[in-house]
Automatic annotation (TrEMBL):
Gene3D superfamilies tied to this protein: P-loop containing nucleotide triphosphate hydrolases
GO biological process: phosphate ion transmembrane transport
Organism: Haliscomenobacter hydrossis (strain ATCC 27775 / DSM 1100 / LMG 10767 / O)
Name of the protein described by the UniProt record: Phosphate ABC transporter, ATPase subunit
Residue ranges the record marks as coiled coil: none
One Pfam family of this chain: ABC_tran
GO CC entries: membrane
Keywords, ordered alphabetically: ATP-binding, Nucleotide-binding, Phosphate transport, Transport
Family matches, as InterPro entries: AAA+_ATPase (IPR003593), ABC_transporter-like_ATP-bd (IPR003439), ABC_transporter-like_CS (IPR017871), P-loop_NTPase (IPR027417), PstB-like (IPR005670)
SMART domains reported in the protein's UniProt record: AAA
Length: 251
């Protein structure tokens, strides 16, 4: 099994507050990895470190390495924009741009200098099909993305992330603002997408982790306490803290 992303002794502090305390974990290619753990344990912080989102926060200090295909995304001279093109992010709340559905999907390609109308149309159609949204919106591509339902907006945001052909998709609680039917659609979509992408998801929903994730990491106070195949972690946790958390004793 090829390792796609390798986190090596990653520490992160916001000012003097230590939030990640030496995270080391391998994320295999074409798998879904779930990060679980109580509120404030550092899940989102770790996810955001995986595509250098903290570059935008001057108070965040990072040491350690994150390797994408063996190359450190934090290496001097490595372009953060290029890293973010290869490692895309989908946020908790759908965040469509106040533009048409077409322009939302084409946005990243236009920024990358691709303006060929036919090529853009092909990508828009392909990514909306891969996000199972095409049939619902194919006659409305010129309408504002803000007119879509929350679940449709989130599938469109996933299509937008996929349009620039990333290699890794990071998802920060992508279903927490959605109803069960939209959630099921996104979960099915994730299972389809992992054929082409490596996915890391933060979730508070234990059932969701068990439905979609191949591997699950349980985090606690900035450390990975246990990281194992999802069935093993939920069925037979090796660490007492994990067992207590899964039993609902804290968090
Ligand atoms: N920009 C910031 N500045 C200072 N502290 C921060 C910042 N962002 C997060 N924190 C703190 O870092 C810790 C970890 O936050 P993080 O959002 O990573 O946790 P989480 O496990 O994702 O939590 P939740 O499940 O509630 O989303 C928290 O104590 C939080 O208050």
């Amino acid at each position: 099994m090829k390792t796609k992303l390798q986190v090596k002794d990653l520490h992160l502090a916001y000012g003097t507050k230590k939030v990640l305390k030496g995270i080391t974990m391998d994320i295999p290619e074409n798998k879904i990895v779930a990060l679980i753990g109580p509120s404030g344990c550092g899940k989102s912080t770790l996810l955001r470190a995986m595509n250098r989102m903290h570059d935008l926060s001057p108070e965040a200090h990072i040491t350690g390495e994150i390797l994408l295909d063996g190359e450190n995304i934090y290496a001097p001279g490595r372009d953060a924009v290029d890293v973010r093109r290869k490692i895309g992010m989908v946020f908790q709340k759908p965040n469509p741009f106040p533009k048409s559905i077409f322009d939302n999907i084409a946005y990243g390609l236009k920024i990358a200098g691709k303006h060929d109308k036919q090529q853009l149309q092909e990508v828009v159609e392909r990514t909306l099909k891969s996000s199972y949204l095409w049939e619902e919106v194919k006659d409305d591509l010129d309408k504002s993305a803000l007119s879509l339902s929350g679940g449709q907006q989130q599938r469109m945001c996933i299509a937008r992330a996929v349009a620039v052909e990333p290699e890794v998709l990071l998802m920060d609680e992508p279903c927490s603002a959605l109803d069960p039917i939209s959630t099921a659609k996104i979960e099915n979509l994730m299972l389809e997408l992992k054929k082409d992408y490596t996915i890391v998801i933060v979730t508070h929903n234990m059932q969701q982790a068990q439905r979609v994730a191949d591997l699950t990491a349980f985090m606690y106070f900035g450390e990975v306490m246990e990281y194992a195949p999802t069935e093993e972690l939920f069925g037979n946790p090796q660490v007492e803290l994990t067992r207590n958390y899964l039993d609902g004793n804290f968090g």
